Batch of 2 targets.
Target 1
Amino acid sequence: MDNLCKKHPTGVLSLFFVFAITLLPLTIFAKVEGDTITLGAAVSLTGKYSTNGKHTKNGYDLGVKIINKAGGIVVNGKKYKVAIKYYDDESTPARGAQLAERLINQDKVKFLLGPYGSGLTKAMAPIAEKYKVPMVEANGASLSLFNKGYKYLFAILSTTEQYLQSVITLAASISKDPKKIRIAGVFENDPFSQDIRKGVFKDAKKLGMKIVIDDKLPQDLNDMSATLTKIKALKPDLLVVSGHAKGATLAIRQIADMKVNVPMLAMTHCDSADIIGKFGKAAEYTLCASQWDRSLSYKDKYFGSAEDFAQLFQKTYNYAPPYQAAESAAAILVYKDALERAGSFDTLKVRDAIAATNTQTFYGNIKFDSTGKNIAKPMVLYQVQDGQFKVVAPAKWAKSKLRWPTPPWDKRK
């Protein structure tokens, strides 16, 4: 080695320099051009998740609009506007992963917003982790996303095991003997719905309830008639359905068409499926899991109250905001808060600032645990009553009483 140094002193020093550089932490800065910070998002604008993809995009866009109107984001004393670089993931996980790579490597975007849905988030999260790029996601609730040790993934919504817990609790509370409650479960065969299934059945079994139907629906979700025929024969006390917006639409339509009588029906994605607008009285009595409701008392200084956000969203997009839009808008507020506290575009510093988030938005309280889950916001449960969604659980926020049991079809008004 001494002889090598004598013969090639410059080359050896260069070699040592390169070696030393490789040992230093790599500092990555986000894409900032002029006075604009660009976030990146692959969202389902086409394909089976396009309805909720539209809600997601509208929420992001409204969040950007309100932040820019309020003066943008102040980083180290300078004001910046916010923009979003969008791609259509076509509701396909493989495409979502490709687009995450493209946003990071070609577009040089170093702050990501999540896609719609757990399956697509599951495909994109490893890419963000690989390149150490923060992703604040608002629509991937699968619990399986948060047991892989990711350090750059943060979810502001409640995770799947919480979605329909209140339904089981509610059913138990109105029954003289919870052990006599018989449950039918119908769940799409995707990560999101299967996690909900695990949570529902785990809680039900703790209370001694009996599972009489446990069906998986294929992801094309075109027909539930075989399952509904079994329900008519077995007469369960509670039917739980999870299949995103398409599954909710299918369930309400076929339950009404086949005149399936069940005392209690609970599902996800009622609002994004617009079951009231599409089915009117056929949607009455349905219990719906929700991340958020406009009647809640959360507030922030940008949107104001939950009701203020709802009115602004409706004025902007001509429809009432489903929770997917609300949580998406709140994701923009999380980035604003974190970037300003970080005082830098260094992605590691911003990641650490996101991890330390402890704030209230119009959508709810946001505080992350070590896995990136929001541990500060509970789910709500509402019921379709007289053509409106009314919060009936948890009791702390409930303004309306549960209407139960659902009357048979031949006795409905």
Target 2
Amino acid sequence: MLVREFMTTDVTSVQETDSLLDARMVFVRSSFRHLPVLRGKALVGVVTEHDVKQFAPSLMSGISPEEYNRVLETTPISRAMTRDPVTLRPDQPVFEAATVLYTRRLGCLPVVENGEMVGIVTTTDMLRLLVRMIRDQGLVTEGSSPAA
């Protein structure tokens, strides 16, 4: 099985010039934990929900909500993102994707073809694939499968 057969192709991304507040709002309004960062159509990084939290000032420091928002509004994503992330090609085997996610302890792998991002593989995608494979192999005993 190849990466192209199970990657997520409807990917939400941000531009490197967008602000940390833009990324924060995507994270708040979705279940995403990782966002590919683009320059035009080219992948230049990945920003995580954790990255934004680490970069933002602590509200416990006494900073006002207005100042907190100002910092997030004026800080470009490029300041907090991981540059040159590990990527996959759509024609790579799923096993390679799983191995990289596991050994490098990553949460996502953008999929790039001809210099453009065409999809993403996340740990959630891998777990969905694992559930499907276990079910298809008949390795689930009756009553042990959660509703899917």
